[in-house]
Amino acid sequence: CYSLQSVPLFNTQNGTTFSSMFIGCNSLQSVPLFNTQNGTTFSSMFTNCFSLQSVPLFNTQNGTTFSNMFSSCYSLQSVPLFNTQNGTTFTSMFSSCNSLQSVPLFNVTNTAATGSCFTTMFLTCANLKVGAMSGSAGTLNYASCSLDYNNLKSIFNNLAVTGSVPCSITSSQNWGSSSLTPTDISSSVLAKGWTILN
What we know:
Distance between the termini: 41 Å
Strand order of the largest sheet: 1-2-3
Order of helices and strands: HEHEHE
Number of strands: 3
Strand content: 5-15%
Helix content: 10-25%
Structural class: little secondary structure
Shape: globular
Radius of gyration: 17 Å
């Protein structure tokens, strides 16, 4: 629906799957606050919504799958603090969101138990300045974003202790990468069982 710019408030109170709902709606600029309280799957809900500038605070308390939810939303600058405590899959959630500057401190502690990863979650998010997530575990890649020293440290400080789950993080080519000291890395990353790839 390339020319669709807006949609009315559908009755979605019984909806559980919202995957690919607006995929490829290039002209869509905003959506109302749908009732998503029973939603579990939000994958690719807004993929390729090039004109989408903002989204309301959907109820995602039962959401488990968020992969590609906002992939290639070129105009999106920020998102609200969705309830992601049950989330297990965040792959490419914000991939190619070129204008994205910040994400709130999502609760992703459920990934520590499952070992699910965040592969390409922030791929080509060149303007990302804030991106810490609480309790993250798996494979994180923040390469070539715009994170300063303090926000890189915030990301490190919010990493989960890995236990037996192999975890790695890439933080190279950010504004603050060159300011990180061996102590910063050893105390906040290596001490939790993570491998840093730069």
